[in-house]
Amino acid sequence: MVPQPMAPSLMYYPEEGVENLDGYCPGGYHPTHLGDRYHNERYEIVHKLGFGSSSTVWLAKDHIENRFVALRILTAEASSEEEETTELEVCQALSSGNQDHPGRRHVLGFFDHFTIDGPNGSHRCIVSEPVGCSAGKSKDEYAPWMFPPNAARSMAAQVLLGLDYIHSCGVVHSDLHSRNILYRLPDFSNYSIEEIYRQFGEPQQRPITRLDEQLTGQEAPNYCVSPMITAEECSQVPDSVQVVIAGFGEAFFPEKIPLYPRKVLNTPTLLMPPEAIFGEHPDSAVDIWTLGCTIYDLLGNGSLLKGFMPDEDDVVAEIISTFGQILWKWTNKWSKKRDFFRLDGTWKQETGRAHVERSRPLKERIEGMGREGEFSSEEMECLEDLLRQMLFYDPDWRIKASRTLESEWMLKWGRPAMEHGAATAAASQSEQLMSTVPMLDSDWVLFSEGEGGN
Which residues form the Protein kinase domain (predicted)? Predict the structure, then answer.
C-alpha cells in the first residue's frame, strides 16, 4: 500500500543543487545514503548522479557483474502510477530487441529493476548504464552554443540510428529532444570505488535541517548529497563523441493508445507536432517530427522554431511561417488564428505577441543556422530535403525512421562523420589500453536524471 502524498509537516532549509528536500514525505523520495545496499546487497550506493521531480539517480556498484550502474529510485507516488508500469515495459522491450541492430548501442542500456520498501512507501528502481551529461545541457550553457561540425553531424546520425532501433521495438519515445540525448562514457568498470573518488572527487555531504530545528525523522536521509555533474562545453566535444537516447518516462506503445483516453504529449512546446497540438492520437510519426526539429538544434546554433515562452498558438504560427498553410482540418480548429493573420491570410503587423510578422521559410532558417563556410551548399540542400520529409504536416506522409538512414544527407555527411568518429574513438581506446595509468578521459562527465528525465 502506497502512503498517500500529503503536504509535508516537516519543512527543511532549502539546499541549492539538490532535490527539493520537502519531497521526503509519504509518497515522496526514498531516503538514500552512501554505502546503502539494495536488491539482496547487490547494488551499493557510491555517489549521486542527479535528481528530478519524481526520482533520484545514483551511481552504484553492481557487486555481481562487477560494474558501475545508474540506479534510479522513483518516488513512491510515481512508482504507483500506470505510466511507470509502461516505462518498465518499454525498458524491457528495448532490452529484448534485435541485438545486431546498429542503432541499439545508441539507446540507453537497461539492466535490471526491482522494488524497495521504505518509510515513504514502495519505490520502483530501474538499473541502467551510467552515461554523460546531455547534449542540450552542454550546448545551452556554453557559448558559442554550437558543436564542432563533425561532432554535430555524428550525433545527428547516431540519433537517427537509435530512433530506428526504438521504432523496431514497437516503442514511441515521444520526448526526443536534446536533453534526452546523452554522452556515452568510456568503460570504467575496472575502477575501484576509491579510483572513482580520485577521478571525480568524493561525495559532498550537506546537512538537512528542519526549519523548526527539530531532529529529522525516518522519512528523510541524515544528509543530502550533491551530484557529481559538470557540463561539457559544446565547443570542446570531440568528433569521436558517442551518444545514447534516454528519457523514456513518456514513451508508449502506439497499439495500446486506442484503449485509453487521448495520449497527452509532454514534449517541449517548440517541438510539439501539429497533430498533437490539435488533439489527434499520436503514433511513431510524432518522433519523426520531434527529431527533425532536434537535428536542426544539434547541427545549428539554435532551435528551428523560435519563441519566448511560447504557447501552442505561437508554435502553430511558427510552423506556418516555416512550412506554409497547415491542413484545413487544423485551420478550422484553430481558434486563435486571427491573433496572427488577417482575413486575407496575410500576417498581422501588430499581434500583441512576441512573433516575427512575416514568413521565414525552412531554407532561410537553414541558411541562418550558423554553418556558413562549414556546410557546403550541397549539404544544406540535402539537409533541407531530409528535414522537409521529417516535418510533413500529414503524419502518414512523414518519412519512416528506417528511410532516414538512406537519405542523401545521412549517406554523404552523417554516416561518414559517425564512422570517422568511431575510428578515432577506437584508436584512442587502444592508446588508453596501452597506457600504464588508467585515467578516465576528462572530456566526459556523468549523467544527471534532471537533464531530461522525470
Answer: 43-410
Residue 262's pLDDT is: 60
Looking at the domain assignment, is residue 13 inside a domain? no
Q: What is the span of the domain harbouring residue 136?
A: 21-301+370-413+440-451
Distance CA 445, CA 313 (A): 38
Burial pattern 88-111, b for ≥16 Cβ within 10 A else e, equals bebbebbeebeeebebbebbbbbb
| DSSP letter, residue 242 | -
Q: Are 314 and 351 spatial neighbours (Cβ–Cβ below 8 Å)?
A: no
Residue 279: inside a domain, yes or no?
Answer: yes
Residue 1 resides in a domain: no
Residues of the chain with pLDDT below 70 are 1-10, 81-85, 229-231, 257-262, 429-454
Q: How many domains does the chain have?
A: 1
pLDDT mean across residues, the chain: 88
- Whether residue 349 is contained in a domain is answered as no
pLDDT at residue 436, as a whole number: 35
Q: How confident is the model at residue 226, as a pLDDT?
A: 93
The CA distance from 331 to 79, in Å, is 40
Element at 401 (helix H, strand E):
helix 401-404
> Taking the C-alpha atoms of 346, 329, 323 and 411 in order, what is their torsion angle to the nearest 10 degrees?
-170
* Spatial separation of the C-alpha atoms in residues 290 and 179, rounded to whole Å: 13
Place of cell 541492430: 101
At which residue does the C-alpha cell 544527407 appear? Answer: 409
Cα angle: 306, vertex 307, 309; to 5 degrees: 150
Give the pTM. Answer: 0.88
Q: How many CB atoms lie within 10 A of CB 57?
A: 25
- Tell me the C-alpha distance between 256 and 171, whole Å: 11
Q: Residue 161 belongs to a domain with what CATH number?
A: 1.10.510.10
Are 430 and 32 contacting, i.e. CB atoms less than 8 angstroms apart?
Answer: no
DSSP letter at 215 equals P
Residue 38, CB-side half-sphere exposure with 13 Å CA sphere? 29
Question: Which residues, including other chains, have CB under 8 Å from residue 329's CB and lie 6 or more apart?
Answer: 278
DSSP 3-state assignment of 415? helix
